[in-house]
Amino acid sequence: MNKETLRKVYMDKRKNMPYSEVCEKSALIEQKILNTDEYFRCGQIFTYVNMGCEVQTTGIIQRALADGKTVAVPVAIPGGSEMHFIQIDSLDGLKRSAFGVLEPDVATGKIIKSNDNTMALVPGLAFDLNKFRIGYGGGYYDCFLGNSIYGAAIGLAFDFQIAEKIETQPHDVCVDFVITDKRDF
To answer: Superfamily assignment of 3-179 in CATH?
Structure first.
């Protein structure tokens, strides 16, 4: 299947998950993340704020803030595939963007640059066994991963979002690890 077809298949599967299952499986993934060496070593976390039936990240965000880590969430820059990561001190004050994503105010927020002390949590509609992903089609995370320094990029997904192989293009960038509710690779 091509990426557009796969995108629709995995989006539909995820939309059909009962919310209780999203919460239960997200809690398993959260515990795995919080117990990784990458989490303990990092000083800053770049993470999306979940929307809809994505793997929930709010618990990870709250724990990282409580642990004194710098937390930054993405803001997509219109007209391209670039995004900035803006530091947050809480989940309060985030507003829905045109894409429906909760974001901080880029005009008043502090842009954080990634470095080798950064753990990036990456969303996806599907990941394959080679750690490539299908996102929503904007190319924002491929641009970030391909042009940034970070300690580890970890894809978060429910186990049914793992495909054997995804057709890739030269601009596609794989993550370092994928963590699901059932396996890590």
So the answer is: NagB/RpiA/CoA transferase-like (3.40.50.10420)
Q: Which residue has the tokens 């391209």?
A: 80
DSSP string, 97-119: -TTS-EE--TTTSPEE---TTEE
What is the chain's pLDDT, residue by residue, as a tens digit (185 residues)?
788 899 999 999 999 999 999 999 999 999 999 999 999 999 999 999 999 899 999 999 999 999 999 999 999 887 888 899 999 999 998 998 877 889 998 888 999 999 999 999 999 999 999 999 999 888 999 999 999 999 999 999 999 999 999 999 999 999 999 999 999 99
Tell me, yes or no, if the pTM score tops 0.85. Answer: yes
Q: Where are the domains of the chain?
A: 3-179
DSSP state of 179: E
